[in-house]
Amino acid sequence: MSRPLLRPDLSPLRGSRDFRAVFASRTVAMLGSQAAEVALLVQAKQLTGSPLVVGLLGMAELVPLVVFGLYGGVLADRFDRRALMRWCEPGLACCAGLLLVNALLPHPAVWPLFAVSAVMMALASLQRPAFEAATPP
Question: What is the pLDDT of residues 8-33, one digit of tens each?
């Protein structure tokens, strides 16, 4: 008896150029958001050495996640999902640039981590429902 191999179904990626573009964009955006969240927490720990600051940074990310996550679903239903996805990406890129500038300073500050992480989480929360609704299950 042969064992069936577990392989993903790649037929949607072969069939539609638009789906490939949305899938690739979604993958890059999600990986970038997750990497930024981890990098923020690591940088906060490196700068302060305090687990309390790391926990507070997590709380600073939680509030926009909950608040803007509710509005993201409404916006994804009301407006063009592709436009919503496109408008959030430059905002996330600007936030990543601000974090890079702060990290390259001779003495990086901790407060920009809180401000930028809150903005990044708000943008990601607005964008995620549009991503989820734009691709089929």
Answer: 777 777 777 887 887 787 788 778 87
SS3 4: coil
Is 135:81 a contact under the CB 8 Å cutoff?
no
The conformation of residue 5, written as its DSSP 8-state character, comes to P
Token pair listed for 39: 């990098």
Q: At what angle do helices 81-104 and 51-78 cross, to 10 degrees?
A: 160
| CA dihedral angle for residue 21, residue 25, residue 31, residue 36, rounded to 10 degrees | 160
Cα separation, 126 vs 81, whole angstroms? 11
Residues 6+ positions from 22 with CB-CB distance below 8 Å: 131, 134, 135
Question: Considering the chain, what is the average pLDDT of its residues?
Answer: 83
The helix (H) or strand (E) run that includes residue 27 is helix 17-48
> Does 114 have pLDDT greater than 90?
yes
Q: Name the strand (E) or helix (H) holding 105.
A: none
pLDDT > 70? residue 112: yes
